[in-house]
Amino acid sequence: MESLIEILGWVGSIEVVAAYALNSYQKIKSDSLVFQLLNLSGALFLIINSVYKEAYPFTFINSVWAVIAIVAIIGIIRKK
After folding, report:
1. Residue 28 and residue 18: Cα distance in Å, rounded?
2. What is the CA radius of gyration of the chain?
3. Residue 6 belongs to domain spanning
4. Mean pLDDT of all residues in the chain?
5. CB count in 10 Å sphere of residue 42
6. Cα 57 to chain centroid, rounded
7. What pLDDT does 80 receive?
8. Which residues, 6+ apart, have CB-to-CB distance to 15 below 8 Å?
9. Which has the closest alpha carbon to 14: 42, 36, 47?
10. How far is CA 69 from the centre of its chain?
11. How far apart are the first and last CA of the chain?
């Protein structure tokens, strides 16, 4: 179980960094569904990892990150 949670933490980190890098290099836009889904899934994986490791400040920031992504996804879906 610990290995799975460690893997989720790494995958989440890679997703959040990938979203940022792809946006910074203008490969995806910040108002795209792909960008927001990368942020959401990355944040969720990091929440799992940080709760398991009892790193609650990181749980908090990733929870906020996830909420921001959810609100943005709802906005994107409503536009379509």
Report:
1. 10
2. 13
3. 2-79
4. 97
5. 25
6. 16
7. 82
8. 38, 39, 41, 42, 45
9. 42
10. 8
11. 40
Report helix, strand or coil for 48. helix
The answer to whether 14 touches 43, Cβ cutoff 8 Å, is: no
- The per-residue pLDDT for range 46-78, each reduced to its tens digit, is 999 999 999 999 999 999 999 999 999 999 999
Domain total of the chain:
1
Q: What span, in angstroms and rounded, lies between the C-alpha atoms of 23 and 33? A: 12
Segment 38-47 shows an average pLDDT of 98
> What is the Cα–Cα distance from 73 to 55, expressed in whole angstroms?
27
Phi, psi for residue 53 in degrees, rounded to 5 = -90, 5
Residue 14 pLDDT more than 90?
yes
